[in-house]
Write a structure and sequence with these properties.
The chain is α/β, with parallel strands linked by helices and about 425 residues long. It has 14 helices and 16 strands. The strands form three sheets. Strands 3, 4, 5, 6, 7, 8, 9, 10, 11, 12 and 16 form an eleven-stranded mixed sheet that branches. A three-stranded antiparallel sheet has the order 13-14-15, covered by helices on one side. Helix 6 runs parallel beside helix 8, helix 10 packs across helix 11 and helix 11 packs across helix 12.
C-alpha cells in the first residue's frame, strides 16, 4: 500500500497579542510614496496640514472697509471664525468695474492698510494715473520708499518683469493698475503707419494667459499678493449680438487663476452744495458715492450673500461710518423719525441725535462704538440679505450735514469753511 505523503502547508501567523508584537509595524503607502517623491524631486513638496489650521483665518489683508471685509470673510464656521475677512495672501484677486466705480480708491485703501500694518506695497501703474496727493489722503505713506513704491512701466513686459522681482523678494502686495493698459513692446515700438501681427486683438490676453501660471506657485511660496484692476470693455462678440455687452480687460485667464473676483458698480452719486474758490460760489458737487460690491468668485469662504452696498465720501475714500449706519437703519437697529436718529441698544445706553451727519460724526470719533454697531448688524445680515434699491435720484445733503462730514474727517477747520460758505451765499443773494 502506497504511503500517502502530506504536503506541509505554511501557516500564517495568527493576529493576536503575541502576533502583533512579533509583526513589523505597517508603513502607510502615502508615507512610502512621500519618501520616494522626495528622492525623485529632490525636495519635499507636501504641505503640512492640521486641524488647528481650521481654527484660524486664512492669511489675509484687511481692505480698510468693514463691509467688504465682512462680505469676503464669509459665514462663521464651526470654530466660530470667518474664514477670510479680507484679501487672501499669496493669491490673486481681481477687481473690476466701469469707470469711476472706485477701483483705484479701493486698491489704494488696501495698500494703505498693508503699509499701516508694517507691510510693503509695489503699485504698478500702467495707466500713469495715480495721483500721489490723493493716495496720501487715503493713508498711503508717500515718500517712504521702504513701504510703498510707485512704478509706471512703459510696456507690458516691463511691468511683468517688475512683478517677478517683487514676488521673488516677498513684497506683500503688488497692485496692477490696470491689466489691460500695458502695451506689448512690439506695439509700442511700431511706427504709426505700421499694421502687423502686434495689432491682433487678444495679444495682451495671451501674454497674461502664459504669464500667470508661471508666477502663481512662486506667489504661494513668497506669500506675495496680487491685486489686479481691470477696466470694462466692449466684447468683440457683442458687436455682432452674440455675447455679453462688456467684459473685464486682460482676458479669460484672470477668471481661472484668481481666488477672488470683485466687481464694483456705481449705484448712485450724491451731490451737495460745496464752496468753489474758483467761482466764489456754492456749487453742486459730488460729495459721495454709493457703490455695489458683487462677489463674482470666492474660493476662500462661503459668502453670506454676494452683493453689498458701501459708501465713498469725497476726500475720505471709503466711508465706514456711513456704510454701517445705513445698514443699521435698513435693519431697524437705528430708527429714523423725521430728522432724528435713535439707537436704542447702544453699548453705553440709547443714542439719540438729530441728523445723519451728527450720528456719523459720533461713529467716526469712537471706533469702538462703530464696531459695536456693526456687531449688532452682523446677525441680521446673516439671516437675510441687505436690501439694495436702484434709484436714479441723487440724494442731496444739506450744508449742515456736509459741514459735519468735513469736520469729522479733519479736512479743514469748520469755522473757516462756514465763513467761506456764508460769504458765498451772500454773493448769491446779491446777484
Amino acid at each position: 500500500m502506497a504511503k500517502t505523503t502530506e504536503t506541509a502547508t505554511p501557516t500564517k501567523a495568527r493576529v493576536g497579542t503575541k502576533g502583533a508584537a512579533a509583526a513589523a509595524p505597517r508603513v502607510s503607502a502615502l508615507t512610502r510614496a512621500r519618501s520616494a517623491l522626495k528622492t525623485v524631486l529632490k525636495e519635499d513638496l507636501v504641505v503640512p496640514l492640521s486641524l488647528d489650521m481650521l481654527k484660524e483665518t486664512i492669511p489675509h489683508i484687511p481692505t480698510g472697509s468693514i463691509v467688504i471685509d465682512f462680505a469676503i470673510g464669509g459665514k462663521i464656521n464651526k470654530h466660530g471664525i470667518a474664514p477670510c475677512p479680507g484679501i487672501p495672501r499669496g493669491r490673486i484677486t481681481q477687481l473690476y468695474g466701469a469707470n469711476s466705480a472706485g477701483k483705484t480708491t479701493l486698491a489704494l485703501t488696501i495698500a494703505a492698510s498693508v503699509c499701516a500694518n508694517g507691510g510693503t506695497v509695489c503699485y504698478i501703474d500702467w495707466e500713469h494715473e495715480v495721483e500721489p496727493r490723493y493716495a496720501e489722503s487715503l493713508g498711503v505713506p508717500i515718500g517712504d520708499d521702504s513701504k510703498f513704491i510707485l512704478i509706471q512701466p512703459n510696456t507690458l513686459e516691463e511691468g511683468m518683469k517688475t512683478m517677478i522681482v517683487m514676488i521673488s523678494e516677498g513684497v506683500d502686495l503688488i497692485v496692477l493698475d490696470s491689466v489691460g493698459a500695458g502695451k506689448p513692446e512690439k506695439q509700442v515700438n511700431q511706427a504709426v503707419d505700421e499694421v502687423g501681427e502686434q495689432d491682433r486683438p487678444g495679444r495682451v490676453a495671451a501674454a497674461w494667459s502664459d504669464f500667470l501660471p508661471k508666477v502663481k506657485g512662486q506667489m504661494a511660496s513668497s506669500n506675495s499678493t496680487i491685486l489686479a484692476i481691470s477696466q470694462m470693455r466692449k466684447t468683440m462678440s457683442s458687436m455682432s449680438g452674440g455675447g455679453p455687452d462688456s467684459a473685464p480687460q486682460g482676458g479669460e485667464a484672470w477668471k481661472f487663476f484668481t481666488s477672488l473676483r470683485l466687481s464694483l458698480r456705481v449705484l448712485q452719486k450724491e451731490k451737495g452744495k460745496v464752496f468753489d474758490p474758483l467761482t466764489n460760489k456754492m456749487e453742486d458737487k459730488v460729495i459721495g458715492t454709493q457703490v455695489i460690491l458683487k462677489l463674482d468668485k470666492n474660493k476662500v469662504s462661503d459668502s453670506a450673500h454676494n452683493e453689498f452696498k458701501y459708501y465713498m465720501a469725497a476726500g475720505l475714500g471709503i466711508d465706514n461710518a456711513r456704510s454701517v449706519a445705513e445698514l443699521a437703519a435698513s435693519y431697524k437697529i437705528v430708527n429714523k423719525s423725521g430728522s432724528w436718529l435713535e439707537w436704542p441698544s447702544g453699548p453705553n445706553g440709547p443714542v439719540k441725535v438729530q441728523g445723519m451727519a451728527q450720528f456719523l460724526k459720533i461713529l467716526r470719533e469712537d471706533p469702538k462704538l462703530l464696531a459695536a454697531l456693526f456687531a449688532q448688524v452682523t446677525p441680521k445680515i446673516m439671516a437675510s440679505p441687505p436690501v439694495i434699491l436702484d434709484t436714479d435720484a441723487a440724494e442731496n445733503i444739506d450744508t449742515d450735514e456736509l459741514m459735519a462730514m468735513v469736520d469729522s474727517i479733519g479736512s479743514g477747520p469748520k469755522k473757516a469753511l462756514a465763513e467761506a460758505m456764508a460769504e458765498a451765499e451772500e454773493t448769491d443773494a446779491t446777484e
